[in-house]
Design a protein that fits this description.
nucleotide-binding; about 300 residues; Transferase(Phosphotransferase), domain 1; kinase; ATP binding; transferase; 2 domains; disordered N terminus; single chain; about 40% helix; protein serine/threonine kinase activity; two-stranded antiparallel ribbon; Phosphorylase Kinase, domain 1; alpha+beta
Length: about 300
């Protein structure tokens, strides 16, 4: 992909010699904006993510996010359709052109269920979880970790296929911490880049000599699974009340009883949300368990007919 971009009018933008028309704003964050745009040539809709880069470090972070997207060609990881940097009024803006998924995030689906006082059936949870695990496996297999797994970072296609997005916090899966200074650097980075109520326990108080690895994602995956089961994250209320999430994550996860979901799903949740990362499984084990539970679900459904 080339790095050329020009704004041809207020309502159109050109990336790599292809024009895209602005439709509407979709989202807005601290230093980023997401717009819905339509390709003039192909008529397809795209999400255009624009990141304001205030300094060289921010530009490098945006560059890294682009490179992370380009590493993957996988149905469960959001692809990159185009990218560019633009200089405007003395400031740099990074533009990432991403496929637009109209159904939105897993979080928006869960919110609607909560508003209707409904719930997500186990078969649907397992189907979505399978896609999330497949995307995480693709990331882990390349030696990286997502580091910010949460329901808002999971998009859902029409068939409930999960697509992982927001690769801006991704880095090498294995981080060797040698000394208190390095530990503080990792801890500060995690505080900035890893959402607090989905952050793994080992990232709250990083030990001065330790290994941080891709099992941070397994903890966050457990939080996402809990959210699909209970329609809220396990530590959302702790955070909202102003209590310490860092302390709360040290305790075993509490699954409110009675629980409508199978013992197998509850056991899987408990396995992922173990505060000691050494006792957590890897993504291959989790994916295997999800497939096993899906098989059991199919057999149970067949027996009911």
């Amino acid at each position: 992909m080339g790095q050329t971009l020009c704004v041809c009018s207020r309502s159109a933008i050109t990336i790599d010699n292809k024009r895209y028309y602005f439709i509407q704003k979709l989202d807005e964050g601290g230093f980023s904006y997401v717009d819905l745009v339509e390709g003039a040539q192909d008529g397809r809709f795209y999400a255009l993510k624009r990141i304001l880069c205030h300094d060289r470090e921010a530009r490098q972070e945006a560059q890294t996010e682009m490179e992370m997207h380009r590493l993957f060609s996988h149905p469960n990881v959001l692809s990159l359709a185009g990218h560019a940097f633009m200089e405007r009024a003395g400031k740099t803006e990074a533009c990432l052109l991403l496929p637009y998924i109209s159904r939105g995030s897993l979080w928006s689906v869960l919110e609607k269920l909560r508003d209707k006082n409904s719930f997500m059936p186990e078969a649907r949870i397992l189907h979505i979880l399978h896609g999330i695990c497949a995307g995480l496996k693709a990331i882990h297999d390349k030696g990286y970790a997502h580091r910010d797994m949460k329901p808002t970072n999971v998009l859902l296609e029409e068939d409930d296929r999960a697509v992982l997005m927001d690769l801006g916090s991704m880095n090498r899966a294995r981080i060797e911490v040698r000394g208190s200074r390095e530990a503080m650097t990792v801890q500060d980075w995690a505080a900035q880049r890893c959402t607090i109520s989905y952050r793994a326990p080992e990232l709250f108080s990083v030990e001065s000599h330790c290994i941080i690895d891709d099992r941070t994602d397994i903890w966050s995956l457990g939080c996402v699974l809990y959210c699909m089961m209970m329609l809220e994250g396990p530590f959302d209320l702790v955070f909202q009340k102003g209590d310490s999430v860092a302390l709360a994550v040290q305790n075993p996860v509490n699954i409110p009883q009675p629980c409508r979901y199978s013992q197998g799903l509850q056991t899987l949740l408990g396995s992922a949300m173990v505060s000691n990362p050494q006792e957590r499984p890897d993504i291959n084990w989790v994916l295997e368990q999800v497939r096993h539970l899906q098989t059991l679900e199919l057999v149970a459904s067949a027996n009911m007919v």
